[in-house]
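Follow-up to my post from last week.
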Amino acid sequence: MSDFVTLADLTLAYGPTVAVDRLNLSIAQGELIALLGPSGCGKTTTMRAIAGLLPPKSGTITIDGRDVTRLAPAKREVGLVFQSYALFPHLSVYDNVAFGLRLRREPDLDTKVRGGLATVGLADFAARLPADLSGGQQQRVALARSLVMQPKVLLLDEPLSNLDARLRLEMRMELQRVQQETGVTMIFVTHDQAEAMALADRIVLMKDGAIEQIGSPEQIYTAPETGFAADFVGFETILRQDEGGALAWRPGAVVLGSGPHNGTVRGASFAGERREYVLDTPLGVVKADTPVDVPAMKIGQTVAFDLPRDRAVRLARA
Amino acid sequence: MFENRTIGLALTVPAALFAAALFILPVGILLSEAFKGDNGFSLMAYVDFFSSPRNQTVFFRTLKLAGLVAVVSAVVGYAAAFCIVSLPAKSRGRMFGLVTLPLMISPVARTYAWLVILGRTGFVNSMLVNMGITDTPFRILFTETAVFIGLLQLFMPLMIISLVSAMENMPRDAIPAARILGANWFQVFTKVILPLTREGLVVGGTLVFTGSMTAYITPAILGGSKVLMLETLLYQRVTVANDFVAASVIAMILIVMAFSANVLLKQIATARRTRV
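User reply:
Got it. Predicted complex:
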């Protein structure tokens, strides 16, 4: 079924400030969804509303066919891994993972807790306190604490942002493995497009409290529909067209050194494999790059360039 | 701060001498007064003190009122502190200022205000009479209730301040995390907030309890000689009866009780269940 989780006309506000405006979204069971966007776009607010931490101003939320809009967080069968992990510092790793199960009077408590810790590779850490663990380990405890509750939906707030590069890759694989093993529907929030691309089945790109575009990573990456989406996935030159809409090019698609247009180099920087340029042109600002073996151009220099039509994406709006 | 530790220590000598000569020594002399018997060391003064029913009443009343003020301010304090930390930063500062405001008003002025409010023709009684609840005004002043109200107002801010700072140090999102894992508000309090703010509760509880026990102005004005507390009894012994031995006994009792309260509360706070 394609509407395991549905948000219908969801409007969320902090007092008089509307953070999310009439959002509509359906998520299939077992899907891994990324809510992607810059800070302040409403992605975290949306996630908190799904968890039940923020009552919606209007609209409905359903999970597995049940209207949960007015239900308490505990009754929604969702899990949430906080960006700050939010482990209970006074409880051992074991007691943290057992917290929800104890409240539920789980008869099979010990097996489940040990199983949860084994799933995240922390079986030997049961007696430790959270303060004695590294950030990555703390996050895995938080993950285990949510997973042992067997939630219908697992929400993750910026799950990779506090980890260093190596742990990030590890955690990414861990999340994918957990998702395959448990089949749990996952919604994670991120501001990092590379992270969303690498992990998600489907990306929900958000801006100013509304959805800008929904699609698979490939769709968003190759066929952004708006200027914001295009810029987010690296189409840095966006030019409005007279007939409406806009065209957008990646820096590598811009031809430098020949072509019908002329521009002035305003910025130049060396980026390892490429040289990156910012040009002031009569058409607008153009961002281009060249391989390093092409001789460097100087700031102030006038250069000919071309914007090939066949390498542009067409946008509905700039 | 100092390159040489000895210099640092040397600089504390004047203050240490000052404290020794003008505080520790006189207090020591005063306290030792009550241990003197006909032939050396004796506890007779203490036996005498506690054998008087009136002194017993004052002792237990002081314990009861100080304990009650501590407990009630803890209950109200948790609610107030929770509201304050839930506020946005700007109004939080304003609220916090409002809580600490009573601490900046002279205790004498503040306590006299209670005389106006609680007196026979005061605000509370004229309200009750006008509403027809009673014909004759209630006697509130010079009762334990009046002393309790005065002490509660005086010391509750200290509890709230301690609890607010303890709550601010709780990990962000610990409360929503517990709620999502199935805790109702009562369980959130007993399983997360209480254990994580224990130290604040101990500090606040000690301040309020010892403060209430050793307060003088409030019980003197609102309780008078009808509702004596240890502190007002001490003053009475010295000024009216010129009985320095009894005063010394009371002083010792107050010191011992303050320390015991602190130790006891710390014990409660550090007692934790270990379970794996």
